Backbone:
């Protein structure tokens, strides 16, 4: 019998060890490490054939298919970062009215996902959390028809699109020739804007005018 | 992963409660702490860090002083975070991310252990042993790009060969002993760039008689 107890203790210890020592990979990330930078481009385009660019003076906020234009301090920081990174790549900033070769749009995109949490265990033990005696009905049980709750999580992403305005008239459409997307924690932050935009441009060495 | 752990614990629990009083000091329990170092594809393509998060247990029946056969299970958790790097995706897509890889393995196998020098009189002497086992692994594969990603569970064939020593410290009736050993673990597995889950493990633990 003694060894059986010893084994029980051993199993409990092992169980605690297992659950306690599994690392949560997401919890072990800093805000910076949580972010991913995705870029894509039209490989048939020679970016050196474009010289001038202009950046939209506000940010499109796209939420569940609806959009609005905003310009917060953070939005301005992102727009300024795009301007300085483009200039560092050899492009010339011009105003929208002087027919730039490239147009750049910056957008904030919000996605809301919903789901359901099961509350079965919560309601099954309701009498254990709140003694019916407190309400003057000692000995009664609770009845609850509710077993679930819905939740929703909104995730934000920042998108930067480079548009081909030079050839728009001849092709009858505005081609998106480069796109960059930032996802992760704490991306809408003025002080981190420059580093985030830089990451997108650094991983796109073909995007230059030289 | 909690599911895999509870499978392991319930296997152990079922074994424990199905014990009968028929055997005399023949049913034994072993509990070990495990360290595991990835080899081959697991090391080269996924995680090259040694895992210090592991444990195992075995319930065995002693057929003779030289031979026992047991049901072996355990848990090993591997984890590695790679510094930010730029990866090429399909087409012209490029992503810069901190990649975190996780691998959790719960083996369930039948394992035989052979003590070449053991006999009825040698119960208090240090004994070398070799072991071999086969069964399956419950595998939980995880990959995260930044905070985006998830895990996928599956099972895989598993086989093991081991060697070590048993150091008795109890009396000849309870046969309690320390065990120190090493194992080579083979497991076939295919996912993305991974082609196997081989590893070398080191274990330290105790073995004691139940009945």
Residues:
């Amino acid at each position: 019998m003694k060894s059986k107890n010893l084994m029980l203790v051993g199993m409990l210890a092992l169980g605690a060890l297992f659950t306690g020592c599994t690392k949560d990979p997401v919890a072990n990330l800093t805000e910076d490490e949580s972010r991913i930078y995705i870029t894509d481009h039209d490989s048939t385009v020679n970016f050196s054939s474009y010289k001038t660019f202009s950046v939209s003076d506000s940010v499109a906020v796209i939420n569940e298919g609806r959009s609005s234009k905003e310009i917060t301090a953070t939005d301005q920081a992102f727009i300024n970062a795009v301007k300085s990174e483009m200039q560092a790549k050899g492009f010339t900033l011009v105003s929208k009215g002087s027919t730039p070769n490239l147009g750049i749009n910056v957008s904030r995109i919000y996605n809301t996902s919903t789901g359901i949490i099961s509350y079965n265990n919560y309601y099954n033990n309701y009498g254990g959390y709140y003694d019916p005696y407190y309400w003057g009905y000692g000995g009664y049980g609770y009845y609850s028809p509710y077993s679930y709750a819905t939740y929703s999580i909104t995730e934000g992403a920042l998108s930067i699109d480079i548009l081909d305005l030079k050839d728009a008239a001849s092709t009858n459409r505005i081609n998106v020739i480069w796109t960059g997307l930032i996802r992760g924690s704490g991306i809408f932050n003025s002080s981190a804007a420059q580093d985030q935009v830089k990451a997108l441009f650094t991983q796109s060495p073909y995007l230059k005018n030289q | 992963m909690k599911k895999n752990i509870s499978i392991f614990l319930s296997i152990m629990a079922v074994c424990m409660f199905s014990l009968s009083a028929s055997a005399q000091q023949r049913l034994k329990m072993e509990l070990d702490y495990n360290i595991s170092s990835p080899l081959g594809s697991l090391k080269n393509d996924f995680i090259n860090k040694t895992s210090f998060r592991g444990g195992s247990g075995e319930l065995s029946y002693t057929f003779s002083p030289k031979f026992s056969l047991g049901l072996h299970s355990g848990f090993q958790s591997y984890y590695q975070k790679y510094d930010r790097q730029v990866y090429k995706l399909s087409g012209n897509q490029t992503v810069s991310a901190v990649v975190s890889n996780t691998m959790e393995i719960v083996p369930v196998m039948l394992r035989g252990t052979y003590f070449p020098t053991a006999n009825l009189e040698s119960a208090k002497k240090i004994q070398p042993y070799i072991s071999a086992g086969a069964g399956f692994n419950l595998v939980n594969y995880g990959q995260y790009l930044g905070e985006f990603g998830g895990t996928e569970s599956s099972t895989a064939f598993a086989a093991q060969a081991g060697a070590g020593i048993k150091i008795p410290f109890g009396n000849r009736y309870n046969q309690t002993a320390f065990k120190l050993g090493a194992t080579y673990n083979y497991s076939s597995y295919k996912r993305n760039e991974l082609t196997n889950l081989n590893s070398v493990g080191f274990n330290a633990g105790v073995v004691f008689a139940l009945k």
Summary: Chain A touches chain B through 36 residues (CB under 8 Å). The beta strands of chain A are 36-41, 52-55, 59-63, 66-70, 92-93, 102-118, 148-164, 175-183. Helices of chain A lie at 2-21, 31-34, 73-88, 120-124, 126-129, 168-171, 190-202. The two ends of chain A are 82 Å apart (CA to CA).
